[in-house]
Specification:
With 344 residues, this protein is α/β, with parallel strands linked by helices. The chain contains ten helices and 15 strands. Helix 3 packs across helix 4 and helix 3 packs across helix 9. It starts with a strand and ends with a strand.
Length: 344
C-alpha cells in the first residue's frame, strides 16, 4: 500500500519534551526539481535537538519547526532532473532540521547510499555521529598509530564511534565516562576515567605523563582549558560542543564565541600545539560542491567500517516517532550508551 499522508514531530517553542507536537494526516511532500522523496526508516535524538528545545542551538531556525539532525530511509520517488535509478535505494542524509518525520523531500545531491547489509537503525547511529568522529580524527587531529588520545564522553553518541575509530587507527585511547560504562569501555580497549569521582586532569597526567596527542572535547565551558593543558607538544585539541552550558540562560551564541576566541588565542602561542572548533557544516555555504564531495567520501568510509564490523552501532533504544518525547527524555537522562533512535 502506497502512503498518501505523512507524520511529523514539531518543536513549537521552548518546551519540555512532553510539549513536542505529533502532527499526522499531512499530504505527502512532492519532490521539486533535483529532489527525491525519502520514506524515513530511522532518525535520531542528537545533542543538537536537546539544545534546540531550550532555544540554545546557535543557528537553529525560528519556532515552530520540525527537528531531526539526520536520517536514513528509502527513496520512494524522484523529482524532475533526478535519475529514476535512485528510487528504491536506501540512503542517508544530514538535515540539521526536518528529520523527525515519516517522509521528507531532500536534494538528491545531499544523499549518501547505505551499503547492503547495514540496517537502517545501525546506519542512523553513524550518520552525524560517525561523520563528526571521522572528520575530527582524520581531517583535524590526523591521529596516527602509536599516539595517545583523550576522548571526553567516550560512551556517548559521537564518543562511542570516535573511540572505535581511534583504536582502529592504532591509537591508545583514554576515555572519560561515568563508572557504569567502564566495563564496556575496557572491553573495547579503552582506559576509562570517571569524570564524576576522579580528578580528570591529574588522572590523565598519570596515564600520559608527557601529555596526549589529541583531545576531543564536547563539554566546553571552563574545562576546555584543562583539555588544552593536557596536550603534548605538537598535540591537537578538537572542541566540538558546549555541553557544560546546555542549561545556561542568556545568549546561545556566547558559549560558541567564547570557544572560538580561546581557539584563536591558543593557536597564536608558539608551542606547536593546535586547536580547532569543529563544525560538521563548515564550508557548506561557501563551497557546497566540495562540502558534499567530502561528506560523501567520509560517510562512505564510516559505513564501510560499520559494514566490516570495525565499528559497532551503539543503539541505546529504538522508539516510535510518536514517542519522541520519551526518546528525548531518555537521551537527556545521561543513563544510556549510544544513540536513541526514532523509527517511523
Amino acid at each position: 500500500m502506497v502512503a498518501t499522508e505523512y507524520v511529523e514531530v514539531v518543536l513549537p517553542g521552548k518546551v519540555e519534551p512532553e510539549g513536542l507536537e505529533v502532527r499526522s494526516g499531512l499530504p505527502l511532500p512532492v519532490p521539486a526539481a533535483g529532489q527525491v522523496l525519502v520514506g524515513v526508516e530511522a532518525t535520531g535524538v542528537s545533542f543538537a535537538e536537546q539544545q534546540m528545545r531550550r532555544g540554545r542551538y546557535y543557528d537553529q531556525p525560528a519556532f515552530p519547526f520540525v527537528p531531526g539532525y539526520d536520517l536514513v530511509g528509502t527513496v520512494l520517488a524522484a523529482g524532475p532532473g533526478v535519475g529514476p535509478e535512485l528510487v528504491g535505494r536506501r540512503v542517508a542524509a544530514m538535515t540539521k532540521t526536518g528529520g523527525w518525520a515519516s517522509h521528507v523531500a531532500l536534494d538528491a545531491a545531499d544523499l549518501v547510499e547505505v551499503p547492503d547489509g547495514v540496517g537502517a537503525a545501525e546506519a542512523e547511529t553513524a550518520v552525524v555521529n560517525g561523520l563528526t568522529a571521522w572528520q575530527m580524527l582524520h581531517r583535524k587531529a590526523r591521529v596516527r598509530a602509536g599516539q595517545t588520545v583523550l576522548v571526553h564522553g567516550a560512551n556517548g553518541g559521537v564518543g562511542s564511534v570516535l573511540v572505535q575509530l581511534a583504536l582502529g587507527a592504532g591509537a591508545r585511547v583514554i576515555g572519560t565516562a561515568s563508572g557504569r560504562h567502564h566495563d564496556a569501555l575496557r572491553a573495547l580497549g579503552v582506559t576509562p576515567v570517571d569524570y564524576r569521582r576522579e580528578d580528570v586532569p591529574a588522572r590523565v597526567r598519570e596515564l600520559a605523563p608527557g601529555g596526549v596527542d589529541a583531545v576531543f572535547d564536547h563539554v566546553g565551558g571552563r574545562g576546555i582549558t584543562d583539555s588544552w593543558r593536557l596536550l603534548a607538544p605538537g598535540g591537537t585539541l578538537v572542541s566540538y560542543g558546549s555541553a557544560a552550558t546546555r542549561d545556561a540562560e542568556g545568549s546561545k551564541q556566547l558559549p560558541v564565541l567564547a570557544l572560538l576566541g580561546r581557539v584563536w588565542l591558543w593557536n597564536l602561542l608558539p608551542n606547536g600545539r593546535h586547536a580547532y572548533f569543529f563544525n560538521v557544516w563548515a564550508g557548506r555555504a561557501f563551497a557546497p560542491n566540495r562540502f558534499r564531495a567530502r561528506l560523501r567520501a567520509d560517510l562512505s568510509q564510516v559505513f564501510a567500517a560499520l559494514h566490516r564490523g570495525e565499528i559497532t552501532a551503539r543503539i541505546a533504544a529504538e522508539l516510535p516517532l510518536a514517542r519522541a518525547a520519551e526518546a528525548m527524555r531518555l537521551a537527556e537522562s545521561g543513563t544510556v550508551a549510544g544513540k536513541v533512535v526514532l523509527v517511523p
